[in-house]
Amino acid sequence: LQKLIHLLQATDDPLIQEQALVTLSNSAAFSVNQDIIRTLDGLSVIGGVLSDCTPKVKEKALNALNNLSMNVKNQKEIQVYITQVCVTVESAPLNSDLQLAGLRLLTNMSVTSDYHHKMVNSIPCFLRLLSEGAERTQIQVLKVLVNLSANPAMAKHLLRAQV
User: Fold this and answer.
1) DSSP 8-state class, residue 92
2) Distance of CA 31 to the CA centre of its chain
3) Domain boundaries, the chain
4) How far is CA 71 from its chain centroid?
5) For residue 150, which of 119, 122, 116 has the smallest C-alpha distance?
6) Whole-angstrom Cα distance, residue 162 to residue 44?
7) Phi, psi of 83 (to 5 degrees)
8) Architecture of the domain whose range is 1-79
9) CA nearest 56: which of 27, 10, 88?
10) Fewer beta carbons within 10 Å, N or C terminal of the chain?
């Protein structure tokens, strides 16, 4: 895992980055690896890749963070990327794999109300995606909206959103 994280930091080659991220994402399916990746500062390395301009690399980074977000300690570190993920979801092509990867991460990060406030500005986007998106996009957006709606503090934001 340490070598993969260092490789991800050291290369600008999108194909190598994708493969390293896929392997880290698969490794994150095991809870012990989630802790190890966090301890090795892998969350910030993977999060740093979110600013990459290659959509496939961003998508793989979002998938890796999604798998890593199953851990509460990891969520505390991943939450700093929520605003950036929301921007990615808004700017990604409609129904793209990149958009869906971002929505999946937001779904996991919205299971508890700890980070809902970071998604408030994206509620109009979520509602637009619910209206315009394909079925799989709509399902993923609904998961985020259901999580947000479970928080009474979000009710006014959800009800006041421009549709």
Assistant:
1) S
2) 18
3) 1-79, 80-162
4) 14
5) 116
6) 34
7) -60, -45
8) Alpha Horseshoe (1.25)
9) 88
10) C
Contact status, residue 147 vs residue 111, Cβ threshold 8 Å: yes
Which secondary structure element, helix H or strand E, spans residue 106, and what is its range?
Answer: helix 97-109
What pLDDT is recorded for position 120? 96
Q: How far apart are CA 144 and CA 115, in angstroms?
A: 12
Q: pLDDT tens, position by position, for the chain (163 residues)?
A: 999 999 999 999 999 999 999 999 999 989 999 999 999 999 999 999 999 889 999 999 999 999 999 999 999 999 999 999 999 999 999 999 999 999 999 999 999 999 999 999 999 999 999 999 999 999 999 999 999 999 999 999 999 988 7
C-alpha distance from residue 105 to each of 2, 69, 88, 158 (Å) = 23, 7, 11, 20
User: What is the predicted pLDDT for the residue at 163?
Assistant: 73
Query: Is 52 in contact with 15 (CB distance < 8 Å)?
Result: no
Put simply, whether the predicted model's pTM sits higher than 0.85 gets the answer yes
Q: How buried is 115 (Cβ within 10 angstroms: 0-12 exposed, 13-18 middle, 19+ buried)?
A: middle
Structure token pair of residue 5: 């994280």
